[in-house]
Amino acid sequence: MPKTMKALVLHEIGKLTLDEVPVEPLRPGTVLVKIKACGICSSDVERVFINGTYHFPTIPGHEFSGQIVAVGDDVDESLLGRRTCVFPMLPCFECPSCKKQQYAQCSHYDYFGSRRDGGYAEYLVVPTWNLVLFDDDLSYDVAAMCEPAAVGIHANGLANVQKGQSVLVIGTGMIGYVCAAFASQITDKVIMCGNSAAKLELAKKYGWETIALETDNFEERINALTDGEGVDVVMEVVGSNQAICNAVAAAGPNSTIVLVGNPKADLTMEKNLYWKILRKSITLRGSWNSSYNDKQNDWKTALDRLKGGEFDQLITHRFPMEESEDAFRVMRDRNTFSTKVMFVME
Known about the structure:
Elements lengths: L3 E9 L2 E8 L7 E11 L1 H10 L11 E9 L11 E4 L2 E2 L5 H4 L10 E2 L11 E5 L3 E4 L5 H4 L2 H14 L6 E5 L3 H11 L4 E6 L2 H9 L3 E4 L5 H9 L4 E6 L4 H10 E9 L11 H9 L3 E4 L11 H9 L8 E5 L4 H9 L7 E5 L2
Parallel strand pairs: 10-11, 10-13, 11-12, 13-14, 14-15, 16-17
Antiparallel strand pairs: 1-2, 3-4, 3-8, 3-17, 4-5, 5-9, 6-7
Helix pairs in contact: 4-5, 4-10
């Protein structure tokens, strides 16, 4: 067991430094994961530069994979050497939602990378319950995309896309691409909407229609693509006021809107747009995190899909932790094309 490790520590808003810190000791039912790759989520940008975490200091990072290098006294030693992703939520297992295995709705959860130390580090002690093992033929950096992929898969499940339906995905980040990719397995009428021309060009390579908010008239483009009927399903993965209003504006009669994006601020909506929700009988569904239980495991589905290689190209930048300033500069620069920026530790 190593005694210390390098980690990116958030001491206060805007102050993220590479420090030498103690490695947490193993406990019963836990393993030590040597982290090989950790994605930078857009929510990490807000944690580091805008909102902070639940306490300081904190090691951020919740999209990570690695290798099991040590096990607790009561843990099967056959896990040693295995590759694993990590489900970042640590539920209480006692509240009513946990009793139903609806862990994403836990009332008293902990969380790697925001409420407790996470994956911007060389090592992390993880309960065996949170391990999502994968085979050696999948790279660590691609496997680290399992968390956002599972979030997109979960949103698709709530949307209940049917063959022949039209689907609009608002947002061109990693989760948006996963939402569109899984929808396109069922229907050939997929539209991606966003601001980045480069990201929309990538969407076209996947065979999807696009709406460029900077140059297209949104409602005119929706009408042209749906013969004026509006779309059957919207997955909104931005969280901005405009994105949510666009979702309602694009929705057709008896459609479904799945809200995935974290809200950026308080939201407002024009009365006539709200009337549309009522008069068109639009169903609004919230989507939070992913399903991780005995009956439905979005993480295993995500790993199976990641093996196909279609999402490899979404990793546009890889940095060592020593270059964290450059990594976050890429994330924050709207003029730099990026979909998934990754810390790699090997």
